Amino acid sequence: MKLLDRLKRLRYLARMLWQAGRFRMTIFLHKIKR
Amino acid sequence: MSNAENKTCQNCEQAFVIEPEDFAFYKKINVPPPSWCPPCRSMRRLAWREERTLYRGVCALCKKPTISIYAPGGPFTVYCRDCWKSDVWDPGTYGRDYDFSRPFFEQFRKLMEAVPQPALMGSLIENSEYSHACRSCKNCYFTFWCYLSENSQYSFALLFSRDSYDSYVTNNSDHAYETLHSNRLYRVRFAYFADECLDSSFLFDCVGCTDCFGCVNLRKRKYAVFNKRLSKEEYAAAMDYWDLGSYVRLQEAKQKFRELYLSMPHRYAHVVNSVNVSGDIIRNTKDCRVCFSALDGVENCAYLYFGAINLKDSYDVNAGGDLCELLYETVATTNSQNTFWSAGGRGMKNVRYGNFGSEASDLFGCVNIKKKQYYILNKQYTKEEYEALVPKIIEHMNAMPYVDARGRVYKYGEFFPPELSMFAYNESLAATWYPKMKDEVLREGWRWRDSSGRDYAVTRRPEDLPDHIRDVGDEILKETIGCAHQGTCDEQCATAFRLTPEELSFYRDMGVALPRLCPSCRHAERLAWRNRYDLWRRKCSCAGAKSGNDVYRNTVAHFHGQGSCSNEFETTFAPDRSEIVYCDECYKAELL
User: Fold this and answer.
1) CA-to-CA distance for B488 and B495, rounded, in angstroms?
2) What pLDDT band is residue B83 in, cutting at 50, 70 and 90?
3) Terminal-residue alpha carbon distance, chain A
4) What is the domain range of residue B505?
5) A5-25: average pLDDT
6) Residues B509, B482: one domain?
């Protein structure tokens, strides 16, 4: 596989991790508000 | 480029079309065009992967009891997960010469019976003895194809999720119950195609909703009950009524939610951030035809059924992805390139006809080969010998094809026949997506496994369970609860089930009534919320000021004015379905 493909895969995984992290923060803030 | 060609499927004997771009792909990878139609090809591949049936067995190497996907008493040598991964055995020792007096597929089946098979697949698993094909999971029970998840039960394809029960393809979620194709949920019960929702129940196609109950097609909404906006106090009062801890109230909510679902328009397909695609449940994808569940970086693919994360230039793939290119007729093959007719496997290159295996390349007809090169029927060859022998085998496969009981011919270029699979039809994923009755399966010459006699007695009938979860004591953990279907359904009903302590505390924490169905029936009921793998050409149901069936009144004027919308599309909603199906423009005008 080309380097570009590997980078794209990393980007998707990073995005997923970022989404997971950001959502954890959303949950945390949601819990504080309750 | 060749013209489109009409062919008759060898299996269902229905006409199907091979498009010019299909011919171009077959020419590019140098394989003959298929003789089965796309749905039959998908069914044939899925017959080669197990569903959610687990058995008790014994490891043939360490002799310890193990949970296995293989029925006991079968022809296969089954090793437990640890033994199968160990270096004490070598699949190469089961290698054999190619026999030019017998069809290839028969020899392949014999090889499969000889080479040890893993009781359960998966890696980096902790305290999850009943989980199969999972990776990096902890404290899970009866989970399948889950990744980086923990404290979850009865779920399929979780990713980055925890405390999720009865979920199907759910990502980044925490405290999710009964969810399907959803992402980022927290304390959500009964959600289908939902994203970024918190403290809500009964959602369909909702995004960014908090404190919502029984809502369809909402975006960024707070305090809504059955799509009606309420104040915070009104919402709290409504939630006192809609207490899902009560089974009676839960059933009432289900019924009302279903009615709302049928009265609202639905987009013809779930397509997000994608161009030039046809199919359903598609995200970050381009230039794909007839693709279902194609997510994140799928390009130039066709006839794809569940593919994700950089899957390119591939046809006829079921469950593939994570850096894949040039796959053809594969099922559950990941991180692989230039691999054709493969069931299972990771990190494969230049493989033709493989079953499982990892980090291997240049294989033909091999089973469970790990980190090797130039193998035919699990026997090692030099590069020159391999390159000389493979064309002879291909020629032999065409000259002496495998012919099944119904006269279907399997030459080079056909996937493995269903009857040679390690799983009976009703144990395989094919039964879920292409359900058939026992006599039909046997008529096809495929295998069927009758459910073995149950050695347990139901100690609590479902109708005798307390209505409210708060009235359920810990003694319920000792009971064997009967499934309300009592084995009368076609959903692999287990007829009874028990609760695990973690499951009971989850139901209490989430405030949901005890289920009255066994996990298999619950799984089937959940899957009914997504459409099958069939595409139908349909017209938009919008008839100007209202939907064509007069159920839904539009709230804004659409681009087509008072007349019916003339847009046509390919959708997974069959023409006889009662849902209102709108084209992209009408849906967006109405709901976004």
Assistant:
1) 9
2) very high
3) 48
4) 462-527
5) 83
6) yes
Do B370 and B382 meet the contact criterion of CB atoms below 8 Å apart?
no
- Minimal CA separation from A9 to chain B, in Å: 6
Q: In which residue are the tokens 């490891």 written?
A: B59
Q: What is the mean pLDDT of residues B457-478?
A: 96
> Which residue from A5, A9, A19 is facing B184, i.e. has the nearest CB?
A19
Residue B174 lies in a domain: no
Is B350 in CB contact (< 8 Å) with chain A?
A: no
Same domain for B475 and B492?
yes
Query: In terms of domains, do B473 and B505 share one?
Result: yes
- Residues B185 and B212: their CA atoms lie apart, in Å, by 13
In this prediction, does ipTM exceed 0.85? Answer: no
Which pLDDT belongs to residue B1?
58
Q: Note whether B498 and B547 are same-domain residues.
A: no
Residues from chain A that touch B172, judged by Cβ atoms under 8 A, are: 16, 19-20, 23
Q: Is B162 helix (H, G, I), strand (E, B) or coil?
A: strand
Query: Do A1 and B325 lie within an 8 Å CB cutoff?
Result: yes
User: What pLDDT band is residue B441 in, cutting at 50, 70 and 90?
Assistant: very high
User: B219 lies in a domain?
Assistant: no
Shortest alpha-carbon distance between residue A10 and chain B (Å)? 9
Q: What is the pLDDT of residue B153?
A: 97
Distance from the B260 Cα atom to the nearest Cα atom in chain A, whole angstroms = 28
pTM metric for this prediction: 0.93
Cα within 13 Å of Cα(B506), Cβ side: 24
Q: In this predicted structure, which of B108-112, B213-217, B312-316, B483-487 has the lowest mean pLDDT? A: B483-487
Domain-located, residue B340: no
Q: How far apart are CA B299 and CA B310, in angstroms?
A: 8
Nearest to B323 among A1, A16, A20 (CB): A1
> Does B160 contact A at CB distance below 8 Å?
yes
Domain closes at, from B487, B504, B527? B527
Positive or negative: CA dihedral B383, B387, B392, B394: positive
Residue B190 lies in a domain: no
Residue B325: its pLDDT value, please? 94
Q: Which amino acid is at B443?
A: R
